[in-house]
Write a structure and sequence with these properties.
Helix content is 69%, strand content 0%. It contains ten helices and no strands.
């Protein structure tokens, strides 16, 4: 007579703690990762910005831009003129723009109980404008330093660095010079905020659906960012050109008057004297700058936040 096998005692259930996927990050982390992502992204695409600025300002000086000539005059290292100012600008611009956007969005969500398309567009415009106004001094320094070496030797300001640029502008032209051209810069930043916020998520959905990409994967973010970057590049290039001309202009030696006094006046003057398409000189590198910075920044920001979640949450 065989004995019944002993009853199997079930093993105690082991609870494996899983990290939550939707973790609310501290505000300090949101602002810090936004700034770091903006700085690292800018370091990658700064040469495209230098080319775009010089190409656009060449028409202001009545010259035809030539990349080969630019390299002969300034060397390859000249593509990084103004890099320090550009990276420092992101400390103020990217940190405040994306940090404020997420803070305002979350606060509005608590009040309304939802965050819809219109809210994102409005918040993107407001925070973009605030961030641009804060970072205007660095923007002027970037334009000055990026293009100074292309001027005739007698007209060069010969800036040696960001501190030298800032102190000389204050002494020679006054502190208000930092906000000369702030209107088109702020207007452009507001439009960038609107176009980026309104279109980036939509394009991610479209590429995921029609090209069978995994949403929020690197290929998906890349395609969506480059497409939204194309739209806002087309919309904001005239404002970018106006900002560059107003930031770089010099007063007439005889009358003492500045040639450009406002955004619309600059656009009308350039269109009348050089043609409307002159405002799009340097569009290709400008698009590479916009799309490239959007792609690299969003990917880097997400990577930094994932590292924080995986190691500190």
């Amino acid at each position: 007579m065989s004995s019944a096998p002993p009853a199997q005692v079930p093993a105690p259930a082991v609870n494996v703690a899983r990290k939550p996927t939707n973790v609310e990050l501290p505000k300090s982390v949101i602002f810090a990762t936004s700034g770091l992502g903006g700085m690292m992204g800018w370091a990658l695409i700064h040469p495209a910005n230098t080319i775009a600025v010089r190409w656009n300002l060449a028409s202001m000086q009545g010259k035809k831009f030539n990349f080969g000539t630019m390299i002969k005059q300034s060397g390859w290292i000249g593509l990084y003129d103004g890099l320090t100012a550009g990276v420092l600008r992101q400390v103020f611009y990217a940190t405040s723009r994306f940090g404020l956007f997420e803070s305002f969005r979350d606060h509005l969500h608590q009040i309304r109980g939802k965050t819809d398309f219109a809210a994102r567009v409005g918040i993107g415009a407001i925070t973009g404008g605030i961030a641009a106004y804060i970072s205007c001094p660095m923007e002027v320094a970037v334009v000055r330093m990026s293009n100074d070496s292309t001027l005739p030797a007698a007209e060069r300001r010969n800036y040696t660095g960001v501190v030298d640029t800032a102190t000389r502008i204050i002494k020679e032209e006054g502190v208000t010079t930092f906000w000369r051209g702030s209107t088109p810069f702020v207007q452009r930043a507001m439009m960038v905020g609107v176009f980026q916020v309104a279109t980036l998520d939509q394009f991610k959905e479209l590429y995921a659906h029609y090209m069978h990409q995994k949403k929020n994967s690197i290929p998906n973010v890349f395609c969506a960012a480059m497409t939204s970057g194309l739209l806002y590049s087309l919309a904001t290039m005239p404002l970018e050109a106006s900002k560059n001309r107003m930031a770089f202009q010099k007063a007439d030696a005889v009358t003492g008057k500045l040639p450009y006094t406002g955004t619309l006046q600059t656009i009308r003057k350039v269109s009348a004297e050089e043609g409307f398409l002159a405002l799009y000189n340097g569009f290709l590198p400008y698009y590479i700058r916009c799309g490239g910075h959007t792609v690299s920044m969003f990917i880097i920001v997400q990577m930094l936040r994932d590292i924080y979640k995986n190691n500190y949450v």
